[in-house]
Amino acid sequence: MCPMSRESMDGKGLDLGTVKLIFDNSPEGILLFRDTTVIYANRAVSERVGWTLEQIVGEEVSKLTGLLDSAEERSALERFYSLLNESIDQDSGEYLFVKPTGEPVVMHANSYRLALAESNYLIAHLTDVTAERLAREKLRRERSAYNAIAQAALAASDLEEACQKVLEGIVESFDFDLGTFRLYNPEERTLRLAGLVGLERGETQEAVSIDDPNFIVARTARTREPFFIREISEAPESKDRLARARKLGIRALIFWPVIGSKGDLIGIINVAATGETRIEDVDREFFATLSGMLTTIIERKRTERELAESQDRFLAFANNVPGPLYIKDHESRVLFVNDYMKSRETQKAWEGKTPDQLFRENHAQRVHDEDREVIEKGPIEREQEFLDDDGGRRTYHMYKFPIFQEGKPPLIGGFSLDVTERVQAERELERAKARAEFFNDLLAHDLNNMHQGIMSSLELIIASNDCTPTLMRIAEGALTQVKRGVSLISNVMKLTQLNGGGIPLSPHDPAESLGAAIEIVKQSFPARSISVETNLESEMYCIMANHFLTDVFYNLMHNSVKNTRDDEVRITVHTSLVQNGETLRIEICDWGKGIPDYTKEKLLAGINEPTSRIGGIGLNLVRQIVDRLGG
To answer: Cα Rg for the chain, rounded, in angstroms?
Structure first.
């Protein structure tokens, strides 16, 4: 590391030249604050949020948070000041930025506080996870909507029940609050309620004429064009048309026409939100897909009374599913496959054949066993990889379920959804996580190097005889704070390891961890007389743990020493078996001044909540280790 020059300092002691050298060309965004002011940002940040570096550097954090989605702005400021004011030591989370163009960008931020030369610095590492967020949201909506369609197709006893189930699924998928589903009666030229969510019967009109000029649902039926209102206050509509919506406190609206396979109007789906929500163009594609699938369901229900037409509608539904769909009998013989399966060049004719005729011996036996499990135990789902016609790999999420018929052997149904994009997004998320961990390690390494240099200088000052008593006290205090910084970084890295998982438990002698912790505590306080009494002996117990158990003992005994005023410190560690000998109880006691009850209550608030912060980083580290050890 090059030495700091006076010209490269930020005026408070930070070498901005080194910061720029490390992070200017980083593909990940870096923001550096001194107190509440941005003193450094790299090009990656500028490109992601749509502001120039000149617009970012020198600005206050309150202006930067103005780029966030309004629902996140206040929370982001609170978390920033919690970090700045040392209420928390690090922060991590996703934030939705809105570029000046209106384009949303989701950034994952890892933020840390650094106290240096009497100034507070905050470092934020930003990773663009927009694609991952959109992929997760798209997958959540698709799965919820497909489940609603499947339930409506398989479980609904009549058309109205099917409409209600689909509407409930759509409202839940899009996080809306209200919804109606109206079916069109061509003889009456009216739209009649067939499904209702968030409203009671009587709160909305049962039938609306499609010729009524005061209803948006009627206009949607006439024009067959979807109607999206992102913010009702900005909608170019008359007050009369939106009066009912405003009375209900609605802010966003969607009206979507459901068009039949022959181009005839079937009905109108209407969903609404009373709170702030985001309606994107991708939602139009999603509604179009749902509308197409819903069309098949309604037409099939309407023609179930006529056997021949019912068969036609079922084929229409099956062949519009965007993936394989099949039905087999209880002996695994294929009765039906959709056009998707028939169109695959990698397979021949399916219908009428058993797994033994379609697959190799080992694979055929697995299919037989799986089908038997479905009939005996119920639905299953799993992921499979296949080669497509172009030789590429596609990932499908497979659902298989029993179909019970009164007085007849059960059938086996199954369908698969292409989740290749979701799987690829998850893999990219893992790669992004690995990159974030790399920069985390790099930052910790460089900070430790800086601390070591400061510690060496302070130790040389203290060892010399040239300092006045006042300067000596200042140097000793500074050395103590630097050591705290080193300890903080160490604990943060341990928390990162814990939260990252992958550290297995193994048979462990707790006496070894206790002995190691006692030695470290004594080395940390060489001027104190520390006595530790315990009934724990080597090889007395064997528990499932790992090397982090030493940190538990060390942090608790370290606090005992700090909170004991006398030079002689007495600590007892008592162990006993509880829960019929299945659990080892370890009690650590000291004779320090203790913590007042009101402070203790505040300190331990939220101790039973896994994501709540309690006390300092040491106590939080102990809590997380104990949680992972099953304590």
So the answer is: 33
3-state secondary structure (DSSP) of residue 108: strand
Segment 474-525, tens digit of pLDDT: 776 776 676 666 666 666 666 666 666 656 778 888 888 888 888 888 887 8
The CA–CA distances, whole Å, from 599 to 591, 614, 615 equal: 18, 12, 10
Sketch out the chain's domains with CATH numbers. Answer: 1-128 (3.30.450.20), 134-307 (3.30.450.40), 324-418 (3.30.450.20), 503-628 (3.30.565.10)
Average pLDDT of the segment spanning 558-565: 83
Per-residue pLDDT at 192 exceeds 90:
yes
What are 271-306's pLDDT values in tens digits? 888 876 656 665 777 788 778 888 887 887 777 646
Whether residue 121 contacts residue 33, with contact meaning beta carbons closer than 8 Å, is answered with yes
In this structure, what token pair is assigned to residue 376?
Answer: 């005996």
> Which pLDDT score is estimated for 2?
35
Alpha-carbon gap, residue 394 to 421, rounded angstroms: 9
Asked whether residue 6 carries a pLDDT value surpassing 50, the answer given is no
Residue 391: band (very low, low, confident or very high) from pLDDT cuts 50, 70, 90: low
Q: Are 614 and 601 in contact (CB under 8 A)?
A: no
CB 510 within 8 A of CB 534: no
Q: Kindly state the tokens that stand for 175.
A: 């996080």
CA distance 606 to 613: 7
Query: CB pairs under 8 A, 24+ apart, for 164-170?
Result: 164/194, 164/195, 164/196, 166/195, 166/290, 166/294, 166/297, 167/195, 167/196, 167/197, 167/269, 167/271, 168/195, 168/197, 169/144, 169/145, 170/145, 170/269, 170/271, 170/290
Find out whether 411 and 395 touch, Cβ atoms under 8 Å.
Answer: no
CB 38 within 8 A of CB 31: yes
Closest CA to 377 of 408, 407, 400, 354: 400
**pTM for the whole thing?**
0.37
3-class secondary structure, 495? helix
In whole angstroms, give the CA distance from residue 280 to residue 214: 27
Residue recorded with tokens 């500028």:
46
- Angle, CA of 205, 206 and 209, to the nearest 5°: 80
Residue 229's identity, in one-letter code, is I
Backbone φ and ψ for 236, nearest 5 degrees, come out as -80, 60
Residue 242 has pLDDT above 50, yes or no: yes
Helices (H), 127-264: 130-155, 159-173, 216-223, 239-247
Q: What percent of the chain has pLDDT over 70?
A: 81
pLDDT tens digits, residue range 12-38?
567 788 888 888 888 889 989 888 899
Q: Sign (positive/negative) of CA torsion 135, 139, 141, 146? A: positive
- Give the DSSP letter of residue 346: T
Structure-token pair, residue 371: 């089908």
Can you tell me the distance from the alpha carbon of 409 to that of 41, in angstroms, rounded to the nearest whole number?
A: 68
E strand or H helix that includes residue 77:
helix 70-84
Residue 405: beta bridge partners?
408
Report yes or no: 269 and 289 within 8 Å, Cβ to Cβ.
Answer: no
d(CA 380, CA 374): 7
**CA 559 to CA 292: how far, in whole Å?**
65
Reported in sequence order, the residue ranges of 275-391 that DSSP labels E, i.e. its strands, are 325-328, 334-337, 380-387
Give residue 184's pLDDT band: very low, low, confident or very high (50, 70, 90). Answer: very high
